[in-house]
Amino acid sequence: MNEKSDQDLERQLSEMLTDGEMQKKDREKEERRLLSPKYEIRIQTQLDPIVEETQKYRSMAKEVDDRYDKYMEKAVKKDKPEDSGEEA
């Protein structure tokens, strides 16, 4: 098939899946799911779980890539207080 007919089929399938009557229970459930939450819960922790796990894995084996290096640098800088620039 060519690309246009593929797009038409995808569009038709999408319409069939989204159009039509939903059962009342399904509709209510979907409406609740689509509502944005009023509140967001955030928890502050002393230790960063990503840093802790990364350090644990690095102690066991060598990483293939450096995907966590930038994150680790930021986390270490955040943990260390900056000097005021004055020396005694």
Would you mind describing this structure in some detail?
By secondary structure, the protein is mainly α. It is built from four helices and no strands. The protein has a domain of 31 residues. Helices cover 57% and strands 0% of the residues.
Rg, alpha carbons? 26 Å
What is the percent of helical residues? 55-70%
Let me know the number of strands.
0
Return the structural class.
mainly alpha
Nearest-integer average pLDDT: 78
List the helices and strands and how they pair.
Elements: H1 3-18, H2 24-34, H3 49-60, H4 69-79
List keywords for this structure.
88 residues, mainly alpha, 0% strand, elongated
What's this model, at a glance?
With 88 residues, the chain is mainly alpha-helical.
